[in-house]
Amino acid sequence: MTWQQGMLLTVLACTLAVFVWDRWRYDVVAMTGLMVCLLLGLIGPEAAFAGFSNPAVITVAAVLVISRALARSGAVDALAGRLLGASGTPFHHLVSFCVLGALLSGFMNNVGALALLMPVALSTARRHGYPPGLLLMPLSFATLLGGMTTLIGTPPNLLIAAFRAEATGARFLLFDFAPTGLALSVAGIAYLLLVGWRFLPETPDPLHEKDAFEVEDYVTEARVAPDSRLVGADVARLAADTGVVVLGVVRDGRHVFGRLQEAVVKAGDVLLLQADTASLERAIEAGGLELVERGTAQPQPGGADPALMEAVVLPNAVVQGSTPSSLDLMSRYGVTLVAAARQGRRFEGRLRDATLSAGDVLLLEGEQARLRAAIADLGCLPLADRKLGLEPRRVALPLGLFAVGIALAGSGLAPAAVAFTGVAVAMVLTGVVRPSQLYQSIDWPVIVLLGAMIPLGDALQETGAARLIGGSILMISGEVGPLVMLAVVLMMTVAITPVLNNAATVVIMAPIAIDIAERLGVVPDAFLMAVAIGASCDFLTPFGHHNNTIIMGPGGYRFGDFWRVGLGLEVVVIAVSLLVIPIVWPF
Questions:
Q1: pLDDT tens digits, 473-482
Q2: Cα(279)–Cα(370) distance, rounded to whole angstroms?
Q3: Vertex 389 angle, CA 385 and 393, to 5°
Q4: Can you name the residues that pair with 248 across neighbouring β-strands?
Q5: Mind listing the pLDDT tens digit for each residue in 230-256?
Q6: How would DSSP label each residue in 398-439?
């Protein structure tokens, strides 16, 4: 091992460890790793930022813009309405959402497809009286499966196409992923519909339509009124009488320390509470409590009561990394953050000082129009069915332009980057997308991640580090055939992707897969396809893919719910992949 290989592998190992640590944003981690490699001389100055001009990065940005235009057109809402109709069984709804989610994610960003369908799924579950958790996890998994069917369905496919172009001189075309992707989508959705849904957690029926969606635990702050019956009682009595969990007591701006359960409640105390919405409501009404933030709500037109609306923090939301106090929602938007919910871990300290992250569910209060404007501006997803007015021209035009781009890329008349960038420009010129929306549509952390990680992948090949790793894997595996090594590469990728971003997984595994194929004397296409599939198959954790993070709160899921449903799906995907890939892409 040369010193360049050793240093590069050390930097990569540290970068991956920080990815797993998940304390810094992944784009910052990736850019830091790139800068370290540049300073160490492992990557030249001329190659350091070449990743940002890679066709894969350009295509991802263009597809994000197109996805935004298709979402605003209302075409998806109309299609979902036709499929679901006014009635139907939960199984009928499950089939409809899985098929539609897989179809959409084949031609738009996974997160975009989920964001379009999740409010409709929540509304459907509430209207028909069954838990939203029955729909959301299968929907999320279906969007991941559908993303494997086309070149633009998910960033890993675009990155794999770029690695193939470097290795063989030819790129994967738009529908080259379809034979394996369709087989996996059909098998995976069949598993979800026949077997997987049976492992979904049993959650209570959703609350009445006027109430919030079913969320396992909200965290909020309530002030003890002078005439509250809780004055003089201890915290343990409050918890026993109302079913809420008291996380802390703030008195005169300072936390009350000592044994919390024995603390005596005084008038004016601010209680940090954690409970479901029903328990919170009982505690507030019976105990003489007042939500701290609700008291700051502005009067509504005509004396109407403020409305409540839930929204989930998306991966690229403006609020991510901010605190409620720093957002100053009342002065900026005229709305207040009443409560928040975070699945899997507890908010520490006061709600106003909590750092918000992707997947958090926010309960906002204010006038309806202001709520919708604030949620849209902050980049969050409202958890309510949208009522969009459809304009025929605005439906037909974006769909028509997108169809032209698909035809150009699918036929090979134009590279995907050129075809879809042209569609995005055409949408701006025709007024489908406003110039200001153009940059808001792009998930810039993903773009930075891709641009920073691609040079690291190139360095793996140029320094010979990929060859070193590939040789070690072959040595450990012994004398086995290509099919066994294909299984090894696929399962290694599947094992890595839950703890890394899927794009980072591809950048690490693709050079290794190419080297293994070369050592075996076979065409690398099958191994690259295995990496693409493995990087898109995170069905085991809520944090390996943004879609799983987003649904965790609204669906009322726990961490273990994902692997219980996803483990069987993972086995199905691996088995079908090893059967289909060698047929479609012979060694």
A1: 888 776 788 9
A2: 28
A3: 135
A4: 272
A5: 787 777 777 777 777 878 888 877 777
A6: HHHHHHHHHHHHHHTSS-HHHHHHHHHHHHHHTTSS-HHHHH
CB-facing half-sphere around the CA of 392: CA atoms within 13 A: 0
List the alpha helices (DSSP H) in 107-232.
110-128, 133-146, 155-168, 178-194
Taking only the tens place, the pLDDT of each residue in 443-461 is: 888 889 889 988 988 898 8
For 255-304, where are the alpha helices, taking DSSP H only? 277-287
DSSP 8-state assignment for residue 311: E
Angle, vertex CA 31, rays to CA 26 and CA 34, nearest 5: 130
Please, is 314 exposed, middle or buried when counting C-beta atoms within 10 Å of its C-beta (0-12, 13-18, 19+)? buried
| 60 Cβ contact list (under 8 Å, min separation 6) | 155, 158, 446, 447, 450
Lowest-confidence segment of 65-69, 506-510, 530-534 by average pLDDT:
65-69
354: left (phi over 0), alpha (psi -120 to 50) or beta: beta
Residue 83's identity, in one-letter code, is L
- Residue from 514, 516, 494 nearest 505 by CA: 494
User: CB of 420 within 8 A of CB of 63?
Assistant: yes
pLDDT per residue over 337-383, tens digit each? Answer: 888 887 656 666 677 788 888 888 888 888 888 888 888 888 888 88
Which one, of 63, 80, 56, 88, lies nearest residue 161 by Cα? Answer: 56
Residue from 99, 80, 90, 84 nearest 186 by CA:
99
Q: What is the pLDDT of residue 206?
A: 38
- How far apart (Å, rounded) are the C-alpha atoms in residues 352 and 355? 9
Nearest to 560 by CA among 199, 53, 107: 199
